[in-house]
Design goal:
elongated, 6 helices, 184 residues, 5 strands, mainly alpha, three-stranded antiparallel sheet, two-stranded antiparallel sheet
Length: 184
């Protein structure tokens, strides 16, 4: 009897269920904990942290007693950071979560993800939503060709979301790449 390493249909279904369960758990965690967090390097950004780090790079052994508390806090008791720095909201997190919610919307056609995507992307300083009114997201733009995915997804009123980067992307990109991020 010959065996194959190809996954069975049942294992694919189990993996998909695990992915959706993980997404649900992350969403619950996000709702509970919010979008503000500590930067893992925030203590090193304080005046004393910058001084200690600079001294360590210049005179290694002399600076060890200065950097030891930073290393100890990071590994032994990271909660102590709250005494020195406060949580903040990071634009990169907003951008990543906004795009993630747009992808969930695309995958599931569940419009309940749209408010989360809009909130995160509108909070990000590098993105601008081009809509001026409801007709801008309810009507397909003339330069936006219909797709087979759109035809499949339209079960109710469609949503056309167009975003622009305010700052140029530093990474080179495919010339056929579009600034359009989601449609249904």
């Amino acid at each position: 009897m010959q065996t194959t390493n190809a996954p069975s249909r049942n294992s694919e279904i189990i993996h998909a269920a695990e992915v959706w369960r993980s997404i649900g758990n992350f969403y619950k965690w996000l709702e509970k904990n919010g979008l503000h967090s500590y930067d893992p390097y925030d203590l090193w950004g304080t005046p004393f942290g910058l001084f200690s780090r600079r001294l360590y790079y210049e005179k290694r052994k002399i600076a060890l007693p200065l950097i030891a508390p930073f290393v100890a806090v990071e590994f032994l008791c990271p909660q102590i950071r709250a005494l020195f720095v406060s949580k903040t909201r990071y634009a990169m997190v907003d951008a990543q979560l906004g795009l993630a919610f747009l992808n969930l919307f695309r995958i599931t056609d569940d419009k309940s993800y749209l408010p989360y995507a809009l909130e995160r992307l509108m909070a990000h300083p590098d993105f601008a939503w081009t809509a001026r009114g409801p007709q801008d997201w309810k009507t397909r733009p003339a330069d936006w060709p219909p797709t087979r995915y759109e035809a499949k997804a339209i079960k109710g009123p469609p949503s056309y979301l167009a975003w622009l980067r305010k700052k140029p992307d530093p990474a080179p990109r495919d010339p056929d790449w579009s600034d359009r991020t989601a449609n249904s």
